[in-house]
Amino acid sequence: MKLDMIKSIQPEGNKGFTLIEILVTIAIFAIGVLAVASMQYWSVRNTASGNTMTIAANLARAQMETLKNLPLSHADLAVGTHLDPNDPKTWNPINPIDAEGKAGGVFTRTWVISAVPGLTLSRQIEVTVKWPRLGQIRSVVLTSISRGNGT
Fold first, then answer.
1. Which of 10, 30, 95, 138 is 20 to 30 Å from 23 by CA-CA measure?
2. Is residue 90 a contact partner of residue 83, using CB atoms and an 8 Å limit?
3. Is residue 50 part of a domain?
């Protein structure tokens, strides 16, 4: 009696999966896994790139604030001040720097102070932070107009 009940539950002719069905399932699963792995790779890469860009922007902002807080009479705010490590005629700031602005990193920070036409008591400050990324030089540039003393 028990044997008859078991036979009636299982339909005749359906005894398992074919090899083709299994191969198609494995192929679909493999494509899905590869897509997830690819998304993970690009996500990590873009996160690292964004982190580096944030560090560079913070280094530029910190130097901009330092320069804006100097009195206008300070020598570093004189018109024509051009602090570039590639120009031997100018003072060489600490370069390269790390994420905290200390010596020994991948970032190069430079700035240029120039006159603002029509505003004799103001200076235009341009701070540039550069770093190598994937064989290219990336940069962040901040520009501001200041009268010194934080304004």
1. 10
2. yes
3. yes
